[in-house]
Structures are given as structure tokens and as C-alpha cells.
């Protein structure tokens, strides 16, 4: 096991396209690091550079204190799981698992022991004599995983390993990946474009965009304290609601106003986000997580002091445990380059309704006890402690420690 | 409904009729006629050839030149596919997978691809005449020139009966390799790239990558190549006829079945006997095709 350190890593393709731009990242020993971002953000390229499948245009990559820039993949002591599994079709499952060990001239009994252990761990014992063509997608995925495990490498590299599985299998494989990592404790770098996978799997998550690192932090911190509009819009599903608002300070304390709505801001916000008071009287971009809304009727006591927002429900999406309430805010949609980039990236592309016109469509996630129905008027309460403020020009989160 | 089906049948038949009739008239019927002519002593003059039964075949059994030709064909059948496939696989691997970085060809692979394919676009006759010059026994031969320059004795590439067959084989390989490089390149292109990457991470060097991953995955294509090359080896004619001394010489050392058939038919005017040789060659070729299809039946690889 080892840590992986990327220092100022660049990848420039022929034609001058910069796929990865000055990437600095330290993956600690035994950590599960997820690289996430929209397609074309350079996450796979970064992973392939760590693996040695792609040469490094600039900077330095070291695995376990050793600079590996010029080492071929086989000498880096890493194992990789590919999106399409890349199992050898002419070998049985057993041979697939043993192949890497055989090439490393490991004694036969040791190979058998390791293959047996991995097969047992992954529940593949009954399939050992089968060829990959005779396996289901999930089984193939487990063989691909097993091929990495038997090697007992310093690090696992995984390139969207779950994206070819159907939704239900993906969830269960996600859980087994988690337990597997807990049991083996091997440093893992995991690439995905699915922010749910990133949130659930990663010890820390690294958000990339256009080859540039946006933010590295624990999933919770990414969710609670996104460093800029892009991260805010990319992480979390449904996505954060944005609106251009004005920060004002009146008799009753500070507030943000947009459309004809005024949300008062608790004083603690200004101590939490130093520098926010400089924006008083100016335009900012306000972000509210759908989960920070609640139906006033079913919110109960914990919503004391929350601001109230009367809305007209356009559409409801009932998910059983909660309801997504879509409603319109009478303000033009925020057209910042970061929000646009974050929105058209995810796989669940929310097709913007052409009916909306010059209004923004917001989503609130409310308790299933709420009886919100389309067309109704509804009072929503907002947890004003969790408002997000972004500079309307740079898109950076105001008062975030990385932006001070 | 019935009318519709009838009309559809008519439609299909009308399209099939032309090619089937052409095939029957120009391919199948000459075959059948050849079987008949093989049992006559026809010399192309008399209108009613004498039927002599299997006499031609009896004579053929004692024809040492023909059996020499058969041995040459069989030697080619073994050697031509082996040598061509080995060389072509090696080149295709270097051009597509064997590069230093990742899964790519060696530097300049685009250029080599064109160079390797070049012999394929030359007409066989041109190749034969070209190599006549290359193999010239005097100092202006491309091979003997340097040899003599080094003070060695010139080699009679086409004049020495012990060497001439190998010269023919060399030319056949030279001409065939290019096509099979392209065929194997196409085969390699259909193998997912990450298969090779996975093998590289698993610790494969170029040699293990070739023998443990590339070759097994390419096995289907290799079999196809084997059948093609086997058929090519069975009906070699033009190179031998144009390039070699005395069309298959010296001393019958390079002759092949097709050359003997041609010689008997159009030089000795023994059409009956030549047809008998043709019938034998037909059975050799069919036998080879059946055998190779039988042996090559194998479970298909799915990715």
C-alpha cells in the first residue's frame, strides 16, 4: 500500500489540447479517492497517467515515494479495473485471475491460494471454470475486480467500473465495493462521472473540470461548502437552485432579495463567511439546496426561524420517501458559465422546459408527508443557515476558506 | 395472399436466375466436361474424342514429373502459410500493438503499412519479371551483385535446381505478406484496446503480450489466412511459369500442378491427359478445403 502524489501534472495531447492542467493531488495511504467531473474533464486521463497507459506531458507522479513517470505500467505495482472489464475472452475465470500472477512468476501454490481467496471473497467459486462470455455483467465485473485483488498491489485504479451495470446492480456493487475497500484497505483511485457514486464511495472526492482541479474534500464538505458555482451545481441531486439576488441590510438585519422574495439572513452567516458583508448592496448569486426546503405544513418545530417562501407547485416528483417539488421563481435563470457547465454534464440531464420562459425552475425536496400536488399553492420554509453565496463575476463561493 | 407470395417468389427468382445460369454455364459445366474429357484421348483435333476410361489416370500414376509437381505443391502448402503468417503476424503486431507507449504501433508504422502492402498491388507477371532481374546470376543481379562484390561465388537462384524452389517460395511469401499484414491489422483493430492495456498492467512484456493475448484473440483470423494461403499454394502458376527457367525448371525443380496441366494442354496438346491432371488437382484442393474447415471449427471468441 502506498500514497499517490501528483505534482503539477499536465497532459497535453497533440494539437495542444490540455486534458489535465497542473493537477496537484495527494492520495493518502489506504484512502478511497474519487475523481469526478463531467465527461471530458480529464479524470480518466489523470487515472491513465497514474497507471502508465498515457505518458505524462509535465509534472511528476509518485507512488509510494517513488517517482514513476518513466516506469511502464507493469513496474508500477498497481492494478486497474476497466469500464468494459477487459477480461481475456479466451481464458477461463480462473486463468483470468491467475494471469497477472503467472506473468510475475509466482509459485503455483501461492497463485492457487490467492485465486481461491479472491474467488471466495467475491462469490465466484462456482464460475472459475467458465469463460467470460458465459457470465453476466455483474459476474464479469466481479472477475475484473478479482483480477485486481489477487495481485495485492499498492493501489487500485478503477475507471468507471460500475457504469456498464444496470441501476439496481450498480447500487449493490457500490455497497460491496465499499466493504471491499474497508476490508482490504488498499489505496484506491476511482473515476466516475456519477456524483452519487462519488458521494457514497469516496473518503475524499476530487472534482475536476476541463482538466483543472476544482475542489478536493470529503463528500460532506463538498456538499456543504462547495468552493464555487461549478462544484455547487455538480454535486448533489437534484442540483442546487441558483438565482441572482441582492444582498441588503435593513432594520431587521441582513437579507437577500430576488424576484419579490426577501429571505433574511441569520447573523451567524456573516461570521461563518467572512467577506460577505462587503457584498451588501451588491448583486450575488444565491444558491439553495433542494434539501434545505421543507413544506411549512409538515416541517414541525425544527423549522422555527426559517424563512417562508410561498410558491405555486408546477410539477411534483414523488419518490416514495420524499417528494421533489418543482416550482417557478420569477427571476431569470442564472446564466453563469459554471452553472451551465455543471448542468449539462450529469447523465440525468434535466431538459430545461421551454415553457418556463424567463423564469427559473427550482426544485425543493420535501417530506413525503407533504401533500403537495401540481397546481397547488404551497408554503415552503427555507433553512437560511445553509444558504450559499457566490460572487456573480468569478463564481467563487463567498467566504469559503479556499477563496479568502 | 397466395398471389403475393407467388409474386415475391418470382421477384427473387428473377434476380437469382442470371447469376445462377452464368455460374452453371461457365463454372459447373466446364467442370463436368473436364471429368468427361479426362476419360478420353482428345488432343483438340478430332470432333469425337475416343473414350478410353481411366487410362489417363493410370498413366498419371507413373508420371514422375507430375508427382514432382505434386510434392512441390504440398511443400508450398505447408511452408507458404507458415512463413507468411508468421511474418505477417509479426509485422501486424509491431504496426498496431508493439509500440513503446501504450497500445500503439512502432514509430513510422503508417509508412511501413504502405510499404508492406505495395507488392500486393503489382501484377503477378510484373513481380515475376522483376524477380527474374533480382535473381540474375551475374553481377548485375540485385542479390548476386553484392555477393560477388564481397568476393563470394554467385548463387544460381533460378539456375541451381537445389535453390530454385526456395527462390519461388521467397517470391510468393514476399508478395503475399502485405495482404495478410492488412488482414491481421484489421483483426487487431477489432480487439478492444483495453484488453492490451489490462495485459500490460498485469505485467505482460511484448513477447507475452503477443503469445498470451494477441495470438489467441486473433486465432480466427489466422485460420482464415491459413485457408486462403493454402488455396494460393495449391494453384500457384504465374510466378513459376513466367519467372523460372524453362517454365518450372531447371530440371522440373520448381514445377507445380497448374504448370504441368498447362504444359500438357497447350504445349503437348494432350487435352485428355491434362484434364485428368486437372481432376486430380480438383480433388486435392477440395480435400484441403474440407480438411481445413473441419479442423478449424472451434468455439468463437466473444468480447
TrEMBL record, chain A:
Gene3D superfamilies: 2.40.50.100, Nucleic acid-binding proteins, P-loop containing nucleotide triphosphate hydrolases. One of its GO terms (molecular function) is ABC-type transporter activity. NCBIfam families: PRK11650.1. It holds the Pfam family ABC_tran. This is sn-glycerol-3-phosphate ABC transporter ATP-binding protein UgpC. Keywords: ATP-binding, Nucleotide-binding, Transport. GO terms for biological process: carbohydrate transport. CDD domains: ABC_MalK_N (cd03301). One of its GO terms (cellular component) is ATP-binding cassette (ABC) transporter complex, substrate-binding subunit-containing. Transmembrane segments: none annotated. Residues 4-235 form the ABC transporter domain.
TrEMBL record, chain B:
CDD domains: TM_PBP2 (cd06261). Its main location: membrane. GO terms for cellular component: plasma membrane. PROSITE patterns: ABC_TM1. It is a multi-pass membrane protein. Residues 70-292 form the ABC transmembrane type-1 domain. It comes from the Bacteria. One of its GO terms (biological process) is transmembrane transport. It is found in: Cell membrane. The chain crosses the membrane at residues 9-29, 74-98, 110-135, 163-186, 225-244, 271-293. Keywords: Cell membrane, Membrane, Transmembrane, Transmembrane helix, Transport. InterPro entries: ABC_transporter_permease, MetI-like, MetI-like_sf. PANTHER family: ABC TRANSPORTER PERMEASE PROTEIN, DIACETYLCHITOBIOSE UPTAKE SYSTEM PERMEASE PROTEIN NGCF. Belongs to the binding-protein-dependent transport system permease family. This is Sugar ABC transporter permease.
